[in-house]
Amino acid sequence: MLLTEKQKMALSEFMRMVLSMTTATALSELTGSDVKMIVAGVSLSPLSKLTLQFPQHFKEDVVSIHQVFKGSISGDALLLLNYSFAVQLTNLLRHNSKDQIVYLNISACEVLTEAGNILLNSYIGLLGTLMGCQFTFSMPTFQIEPLPDLVKSLMLSRNEVRYVLMVDTTFEFCHNSVKGYLVFVSGVIPLSCLIKGIEASINLTIPNP
């Protein structure tokens, strides 16, 4: 299962819509400072290969904010961050706090979960709008674990080959930036329907050379 250039363009445009003014404004209100979200790239790979294809990005434990959603298409939506990036993002989100954290604590988990909830709700909400369907989704959960353990939990009790659609995302706060990943995990058929639905809704065309 591979992405065509047209599909990559459509998915990138979709994610720019997700991370546009509404989401950025909500995060800006949360932080009290301007926030920009930048989509650097989109990739698709088998979930089982994630630990082999992205080891350079996840050398530390992975921090995840995770929601399960169901509807005409079902799957898992996650915000993934390296542990050190999660600490950095927490300090930027809590920039009015006098105390900078070095390790994630309960307060940091709450802040990151709230930010992740904003992003994932925008993701799932816009997906439903574009595809003309409604989704139900779980409350967000926060987890810190090695990447192999996260992959194993996403594959557990699943009788299907699962793929992961990964969006390379950058949070920009004034002169600071933090890299993260917005991730969608599902089976081949639901994921194919999602990609085709986004492609048709965005209606992008690639100019002929």
Task: Outline the fold blueprint.
Layout: H1 5-18, H2 21-31, E1 35-46, H3 50-53, E2 62-70, E3 75-82, H4 83-93, H5 106-131, E4 136-137, E5 141-145, H6 147-155, E6 162-173, E7 176-187, H7 188-202
Antiparallel strand pairs: 1-6, 2-3, 2-4, 2-5, 3-7, 6-7
Helix pairs in contact: 1-7, 2-5, 4-5
Which of globular, elongated, flat, extended, rod-shaped describes the shape? globular
Sheet of most strands: 7 strands, antiparallel
Order of helices and strands: HHEHEEHHEEHEEH
Poorly predicted runs are 204-209
Number of H/I helices: 7
- Total count of strands: 7
Radius of gyration: 17 Å
Structural class: alpha+beta
What is the CA-CA span between the terminal residues?
25 Å
Portion in beta strands? 25-35%
> What is the helix content?
40-55%
Average of pLDDT: 82
Describe the fold and architecture.
This protein is of the alpha+beta class. The chain contains 7 helices and 7 strands, in the order ααβαββααββαββα. Strands 1, 2, 3, 4, 5, 6 and 7 form a 7-stranded antiparallel beta sheet that branches. A hairpin with a 2-residue loop joins strand 6 and strand 7 (176-187). The two termini are 25 Å apart.
